[in-house]
Write a structure and sequence with these properties.
single chain; alpha/beta; seven-stranded parallel sheet; elongated
Length: 236
């Protein structure tokens, strides 16, 4: 299955400019080809291409599936970016393949990286979604200061902060998942962990301290461990 990202309007689908270029110039696609398109919001359509122009490829919708493989939970991971960008990109790719809904990058006291290139990271997410045939594209947010993030309104979300401070009360993430939460916001810290002040501030704003196991993981490994555990515990 060849999957592209675009817009689906009633019986017509449109590839965006970048995807149109890839279809026409790289893959040498032609009118009459049958491909699949997702709007990134759960719709997956099989289409027949009938128009190819320089900036847009259009197709007729042959059939469409709504809420294609929709999960029964929402997972938002806020992570302090790693110093080595390849490690962060690896996390984004694998987390998208497994299943994640939203990603935010945190600027913390011990952060090793203070800037990101969101457009590049969005492309990695889109590529991983197409490769793994996902109809839902994770939302990629800009960098935000830790203090600003935890004060946001997360409505009824189960909020938790993963850290390694054994002198502070924590519960196992697997134990937390036993309550079957359907909306989770999880904070993952930098290599130097969250500061004691950040942990205390998070807890005062409704975040529960959690442990991801006895091992001390790298940042991206801890985040992937959380994604795996959530999918394993909550997926149907």
């Amino acid at each position: 299955m060849k999957l592209f990202i675009g817009e689906i309007v009633e019986k017509t689908a449109y590839l965006n400019e970048e995807e149109s270029h890839h279809f026409a110039k790289v893959l040498r696609g032609k009118e009459g080809d049958i491909v699949h398109v997702t709007d990134g919001e759960g719709s997956l359509a099989e289409i027949e291409i009938y128009s190819i122009t320089k900036k847009r490829v259009e197709g007729k919708v042959l059939n469409i599936k709504r809420e294609f493989e929709k999960k029964n939970y929402q997972l938002h991971i806020a992570i302090a970016p790693t110093k080595t960008i390849e490690r962060l990109e690896f996390f984004l790719e694998k987390a998208t393949e497994i299943g994640i809904d939203e990603i935010t990058f945190l600027q913390t006291f011990h952060s090793e990286r203070k800037t990101i290139k969101r457009e590049r990271l969005e492309k990695i997410v889109q590529s991983a979604a197409k490769q793994s045939l996902k109809a839902y594209l994770p939302k990629v947010n800009d960098m935000v200061k830790f203090n600003d993030f935890i004060k946001q309104n997360f409505e009824e979300a189960t909020r938790c902060i993963a850290h390694c401070q054994t002198v502070v009360t924590r519960i196992s993430y697997k134990t937390l998942l036993q309550s079957k939460p359907n909306n989770i916001v999880l904070l993952i810290g930098p290599e130097g962990d969250f500061s004691n002040e950040e942990i205390a501030l998070a807890e005062s704003n409704g975040f529960t301290g959690i442990s991801l196991g006895h091992q001390r993981f790298r940042t991206e490994t801890a985040a992937l461990q959380a994604v795996f555990a959530t999918d394993w515990s909550l997926s149907d």
